[in-house]
Each structure stands twice: as C-alpha cells, then as structure tokens.
TrEMBL record:
Domain ATPase AAA-type core: 47-360
Signal sequence, renumbered to the chain: none
GO molecular function: ATP binding; ATP hydrolysis activity
Designated name of the protein: ATPase AAA-type core domain-containing protein
C-alpha cells in the first residue's frame, strides 16, 4: 500500500513535489479510505491528477515508471553503463544535479521508507528504513555513492556490497538478488505491487494471458465487460499455431498490432472474439475484438489489470485513464476501487485524466483530487484540491473550469492567423 511518493529534478519536475495518499481529516466518503490499524493513518484508495496539456501529469507518473524500470534492471548494469535518468533541462544548474525519488509504503504489514538520488553515471544516495514496531530502524544508508552505513546484519550486507555491487546499481536490488530477506520484502513490493500503465501497448495481451491462466479472472473480466458494454454476451479466446518466419507480411506489423495478434512468445495467433445476439433469431454471431470500438478494446485491455489489482491489493498507476472511454465507464472503473465489497485487499488506483465530469464530491474526497501546473520557470508543480478552502457542497467541476484551482490551459488571445 502506497503512502507517499516524492520526486525532484526529473523531466519537467524541478523542485520536490509529493503525491500523498495519506488521508486528511476530511470525514466524507469513508468507503474511499483504507482504514489504518493501531496508530497508522488512513490511506486513500484512489487519486486523480488533472492539469493542462504539457503541465507534467504524465511526468509525475513517469517518475514511478523510472523507479520501477531502474529497480528491475539495476542488477544487470555493467560498470560504466548510463543509468538513463533525465533531469530538469531548462536550467544548467539542474542538468548535473542528481534526480531524487522517495517512497513510503506498507509491505506485509510493515512500513518502509525507500529512496535514492542518481545522476546518469551513478547512484549518489540511497536508503532503506523500516518500522517493525512503529519506530524507524535503518537497514542501510548510502552517501557519496560508496559510503555505506548498516545497523542490521552488518557482516552479511558488507559482504554483498564488497563482492557484487557497483556505483551505478541500486543496492536494494543487489541485496534482493542475493536473497537478503530484509531487502527482499520491500523490493518485492516495489517490483510486484506497483503496476504502471503509461502506454496502451500490450494491454489486451496481458488481459488475455490472465484470462487463459486463471478461470476466476476469466469470469470476472467477462462479467465486467458485459456489465459495461450491454451488447456483448460473451468473449471467446482461441490460439492458432503459426510460423512468423514463413509469413513475410507479418514483419511489417508494428509492435501494438503484434501484441494484439500474437501471444507473448510470438508463435501463436491469438483471436479474441465478442459474442452478440442476432436481432432476428436466437442465434449468436462472433465479432473480432478489433471490430469493436476503440473504447471497448481499451476497456477490455484494462480489465485484466483491474481484476488483478483488486484481487491482490496492487497499486495501479494509469496515464490518461479516460482516453477513449465515456465518462460513465471511467467512473465505473474508479468506483470498483472505492467499493468495499469489491476492493477487499487494499488495492489503490492513481491516474491522470482530463475528464472534468469526474470532478464531483459525490465521487471523490477533496484530498483525492490533484493538479499539475506549469510555474513561471516552466517546471511542474503538484498540489491537492485539499489545499483550497472548498465547501463540501461546492461544484468543483465548475470551479476548476473557471480557473479557481489553476491547472487549466492558458490560451493566448493575440495569436496570428496566417
């Protein structure tokens, strides 16, 4: 369960910004909260990020994506290989400064804090803390790239560092690879529980693979799609063996088309069909999923992630959730996370959107709504609706479109038409 995420000097983000999933003292919509145990705070089940085009919404989510990418590839980094981090580039002073990423989360009932800062050449700082009895305990701290501090299992961690580590790797990845348990639990959460959807590619492939491997997921995906798209009666999935090398035309397909047509091994043609009842008989007719609307195709692709997240208590991060979807469908997807009868495992949803129809206090608490805005120095600011004195009965969609909370496009009136 994610509590906070902070990022600094990354893409359009110059100064440190924090997306907090810790609930405010607002007493509305208790169903939208994961209720904290003992003295732990309540945590939000969902958060929506609004903002003008090019304001940095996607870059906030890309920061999650970079952390996930670096964690997954770090142990494979050869000495001297570039890390691939992209700092704020509109001021020279920031180009050579480290980019920083910090996260607070709950894994297996224990609170962890993990973060690092890195240039393109090396990891400059890194830390991992945990709170087994509510008090902070250091697993490791790393400063000036190679200066480490251990307070737990000092000999074991030192041995791993000296034998297997290098300055362009994340130490948490190295520890986890060599099965150091105190690092494995948080690493597995970061690796498995954060699901990030920035691109539409392979959505359908993922859903199909889940439906084929898990009958419970298969039934839920079908049920959700039938609930949302009234004309669809059923879905069928078939696979046909095919040798791609013997069909030269297939090499001209782009990656998105290949992901839709083939399984992840690339040796079977995957055919997803929807079943519709005919108007003039009791018979049914099949349509290829490609013949369905873009919105139906996207919804189908998302549903695998939705069911997986809700079943396993994952944190799902989605860019432009509303793209190609009607407002009612987007609301339907959000409400699944809010519904305590569906979301029994503390799953979370963080998404960016332009759909102002969702700006409704009947759907969201004020602390669930976030905005990105470009500042005077062209960097991204991130802030919450909860920072404003908004009445509980206020029409926040109207207020947003009127510019009361910022984060809307500024269109110059002195443009030239040539």
């Amino acid at each position: 369960m994610l509590m906070e995420f902070s990022v600094e000097n990354f893409l359009s983000i110059k100064e440190r910004v924090t997306l907090s999933m810790i609930a405010s003292k607002d007493t509305t919509h208790e169903n939208n909260l994961i209720i904290g145990k003992d003295k732990s705070p309540n945590v939000l089940k969902a958060a929506a990020i609004y903002g003008a085009n090019a304001s940095g919404k996607t870059n906030v989510l890309q920061a999650f994506n970079f952390v996930s990418y670096f964690l997954n590839t770090s142990h494979e980094m050869q000495q001297g290989k570039k890390i691939g981090v992209e700092p704020f580039k509109l001021e020279r002073a920031y180009i050579d400064k480290p980019s920083s990423f910090d996260m607070v989360f709950i894994a297996e009932g224990i609170k962890y804090a993990y973060g690092f800062s890195a240039t393109d050449d090396k990891v400059v700082e890194e830390y991992l803390y945990f709170y087994p009895k509510g008090r902070q305990s250091i697993i490791f701290e790393r400063e000036d790239t190679d200066n480490y501090k251990f307070t737990n299992d000092i000999e074991r961690q030192t041995q791993i560092k000296d034998k297997f580590h290098s300055n362009n790797k994340l130490f948490i990845s190295t520890l986890s690879l060599w099965e150091y348990e105190k690092a494995q639990i948080p690493f597995k959460w970061l690796d498995n529980n954060l699901k990030i959807l920035i691109s539409r590619e392979k959505l359908e492939e993922y859903t199909v693979s889940l439906m084929k491997s898990d009958e419970a997921i298969n039934k839920r995906v079908k049920g959700l799609l039938k609930s949302a798209v009234k004309d669809i009666e059923d879905i069928t999935i078939t696979e046909i063996d095919i040798d791609i090398k013997e069909n030269p035309l297939l090499k001209y397909l782009n990656d998105e088309a290949k992901a839709k047509l083939f399984n992840n091994k690339g040796n079977k043609l995957v055919n997803v069909n929807t079943l519709h009842k005919m108007n003039d008989s009791e018979e049914f007719i099949e349509f290829d999923m490609i013949d369905e609307s873009d919105g139906t195709q996207k919804l189908f692709g998302l549903l695998g992630f939705w069911v997986k997240a809700l079943d396993e208590g994952l944190t799902l991060i989605v860019d432009e959730l509303d793209a190609r979807l009607h407002s009612h469908l987007t609301k339907f997807l959000v409400e699944l996370f809010h519904d305590p009868n569906v979301n029994k495992n503390n799953a979370q949803l963080i998404f960016s959107t332009h759909d102002t129809n969702l700006l409704d206090q009947d759907l969201f608490r004020r602390d669930q709504i976030w905005f990105t805005e470009k500042k005077e120095d062209k960097s991204t600011d991130l802030y919450s609706l909860d920072d404003f004195p908004v009445r509980k009965d206020a029409a926040i969609e109207k207020g947003y479109l009127q510019g009361k909370y910022g984060a809307i496009p500024y269109i110059k009136g002195d443009f030239l038409w040539q």
